Amino acid sequence: MKAVKIRRIVVTAVIILAAYLLQCSVFPALEIAGVKPNLMLIVTASFGFMRGPREGMFVGFASGLLIDIQHGDMIGFYALIYLAAGFVNGLFEQIYFDEDIKLPLFLIAGTDLVYGLGVYFLTFLLRSDFNFLYYLNRIIIPETIYTIAITLIVYPLLLFINHKLETEEKRSASKFV
Prior knowledge:
The structure is a single chain. The protein is mostly helical. 79% of the residues lie in helices and 0% in strands. It has six helices and no strands. The mean pLDDT is 90.
């Protein structure tokens, strides 16, 4: 049983690191009009509604901490935002169904919109940058659309990995019963 939990932790860590490396190295090359998709947010939200608030918070905190270390002005800012995103998405675990992609797309789009608004209000507005409509039209909405497009590719892969891990966990649990 412990080997299965360790395997899930290792696979989750590998997914977080792979998403981080892709977001830092590959996605800047895929930038369109100064906007790139937020792969770390896709991973955080997906783990939240697939595995629940606790795992969503763990993945969100780890993802946000990596972003803070790379280019944050203060450690913990993005970690807290991603932690909250993982928790809120985890609250939808009860109504989440694997077959239906509409809920994940809606949740990831909503999370990205709230993330963009939160970052604007907590960073730019506090610095007296009142050009909200420009930021909304040029960054928040295009990033949300781009993130949704990438979600259509990344989400099925995350769902496949989650199914494999859950199957292995059920098989392992049935051996002990």
